[in-house]
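Students often ask what a holo structure prediction actually looks like on paper. The answer is less mysterious than it sounds. You provide the chain, you provide the ligand, and the output is a string of discrete structure tokens encoding the 3D arrangement of the protein together with NDP.
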Amino acid sequence: MPNRPAPTDPFDLVVFGGTGDLTYRKLLPALYHREPVGHICEDARIIAVSRRQLTDEEYREWAGKAICEHVKDVDQDALGRFLKRIQYVSVDVAQNTGWEALEEKLAGREDVIRAFYLSVSPDFFGPICSALGEHNLVTEKSRVTIEKPIGKDGTSAHEVNETVGSVFKEHQIFRIDHYLGKETVQNLMALRFANVLFEPLWNSAHIDHVQITVAETLGVESRAGYYDTAGALRDMVQNHLLQLLCLVAMEAPESMAPDSVRDEKLKVLKALRRMTPEMVERNTVRGQYRSGASAGGAVRGYLEELGNDTSTTETFVAAKVDIANWRWANVPFYLRTGKRLASRVSEITIQFKDVPHSIFLPDAGRIAANKLVIRLQPDEGVKMQVMIKDPGPGSMRLREVPLDMTFAEAFNARHPDAYERLIMDMIRGNQTLFMRRDEVEAAWAWIDPILSHWSHVKESPKPYTSGTWGPSSSIALIERDGRTWHDESD
Ligand code: NDP
Ligand code: BG6
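The corresponding structure tokens follow.
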């Protein structure tokens, strides 16, 4: 039986971008889920802010639709209570109008937690923070959440951090990476640091290499406008994949205190070997999907979806990454992510080394090296491949079997969406699962030389057919080292 959470302290959550895609698909459903379990205290309000003119009632109707579309088994009483908390204010950030209405809404509640969530284009982070400062809306109990991407390179990320930091102190800034809120990602920390089993083996003496795959079957959908200015390296690798890499590679933090964890992640980011142009050529692959079949149906290619046949934005990246430190010397981390791939799967594979010497006769069969597969989605769980003896009285034959722990079977409970945890952590003021400024900037410092080389050579990304595992050169990237990508059906 999951623990019933204690109700939060009173809060006002102000969501800029209240009519946007993220709010509709993720934020409202995530917030609603905390209502029936009593996590949201009675005196809590949600104030949606966007440019268009809407009444509270019109907005509540839209919010109710978002919840009914994205939540299974909606409890109508809880939904009614939840919708009553919501109010709507129209502010046009570009025109700098409407702030007085927001001031009015917030007046008299300076003593409650005031959480601003900026679910808008990053170009608005600066203007919104400045306006909040000018209108005296930032209180001692205020905090701000900013969505990724934070900048499009190191310089612009620094500028965003400077602007937001000129109004909010670092302990008030919550830079969200929703991968850190995923159950299995937190389980990775439990697996490593709440078991004595793995840590002694977690190094270059025993691990051959690590693979991190985040594969999607979806295309760019309605976000083509944003995506075409970003590409897979900025959209996925700079944040989600590097954060996963950090959690696999970091030393044990002193505690789960925010800065203990973030200090350790930062050390990993700083130890990533910077790529020279030759290394970028050899160790990275960019791809772009063409038409094909995905999730059972025919789909268009990226360029047709975008309506622009000259775009060279990558929708797939694979990279071989080195961590230049004692623990990970000569243990490559292979990363790959892409849209319109063969299946939706996110997983981390830890490939152990071969046994040093076999005591078995050749006809016992091949001894496959142990493999630990941490599955983030779908079917969250952990699988350990081990060798056993084939049962029976015949001669000794070896067989590889999985020790499989699928969390859905182990815990008969709904897995909360990452945003549920992260929004509640933000309201409680817990920054452990949020990125600190120096982490974001260190991640860009590693990404920038890759971006710079790609833009210098102006080579088009390698085409791949939708529904496959990306360009063939991404297979060659790992196979030339005598290794293969983990096949999820193994
Ligand atoms: P959308 O384009 O769907 O929404 C943008 C929002 O900004 C709308 O509510 C819009 O309001 C509002 N807005 C636009 N112009 C103004 C203005 N001048 N003044 C006030 N409000 C304005 O974006 P998303 O929801 O997709 O993304 C929001 C943020 O979240 C972005 O930073 C994105 O990168 C990030 N993100 C999104 C993800 C997703 O899956 N959607 C995933 C991860 C991150 P109105 O409609 O009234 O104009
Ligand atoms: C977002 C990216 O951060 O993560 C999207 O901007 C991507 O392009 C999404 O689709 C993937 O998230 P999830 O939780 O569905 O794996």
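Residues 289 and 464 are 5 Å apart (CA to CA).
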